[in-house]
Amino acid sequence: MLLNALLTFLLVVSFSIDAKPWRLCHEDKEYPPYLTNSVQNTQPEGLVIDVLSGAAKHANTPIAFVARPWKRCKQGVKNGTYDGLFVMLRTPKRTEQFAYPTNEQHYLNKVDYVILYKKGSPLHRAESNGKLFNEQGQFNFNYYKRIQEFGLQAPTGYVLHQFLKQHNVAANDNYDLDLGINQVANGRLDGYVVEKRAGLKRVETLNKQGIVISSQGVLKQTYWYVPFNRDFYNKNKDNVARFWHHMQLSREQILAND
User: Fold this and answer.
1) I need a surface site. Which of 172, 183, 244, 255 has the fewest CB within 10 A?
2) Which residues span the domain enclosing 80?
3) φ, ψ dihedrals at 62, nearest 5°
4) DSSP element (H, E) containing 63
5) What confidence tens digit (pLDDT) does each residue in 155-174 have?
């Protein structure tokens, strides 16, 4: 019995040393406090990296992080260049392209997407008067269209960007987060839609506190996931399921205590 236990231990150690790391792709932009040092050939840091690293450790699964433009991440996972990617929202189209967890608790993070707008702006006044969001907390698109001047914006290629376009409230010009915040501060953009925590952190970094503020209402509440290439998942179902399970435990420990 002791011999069997020793052999099992040696097999586990051998697997840990020899196993090829899973390649997880992420966007090559920084979104503190979730993701920093997000460039090629550097070790990323941040809350989501802590969650994923903790999950990999406890699942006994080596992982490697790869920074690429977001479109290249998505294409790279589709064609098998990379094994998985983060952070990604779930849509019907994406569930056909990638393997998502079926357990509803196996998400990376639950997030609120809010509108960053200028203090004292028409959007600020509309929310203060209870007109920007209805009693159920839903954004009042009809009312916003009545006061719309420049439109709203979100990062190009993101689900939220398409969401704004579908509702015909997107600004004509595309802005990344930093430029979007500056355009809001200068009164040239009605608002910028972004995950609340990352958005306010960037406002602080750009020294726009007190000028650009967050809506109290939430435009969209959703989940971040770590989906995988479908062929990779089909060949590693048990290992991926174990990783997702430990990701939940790691998330509950790290993000709940942050």
Assistant:
1) 172
2) 2-108+225-257
3) -70, 135
4) strand 63-68
5) 887 899 999 999 999 999 99
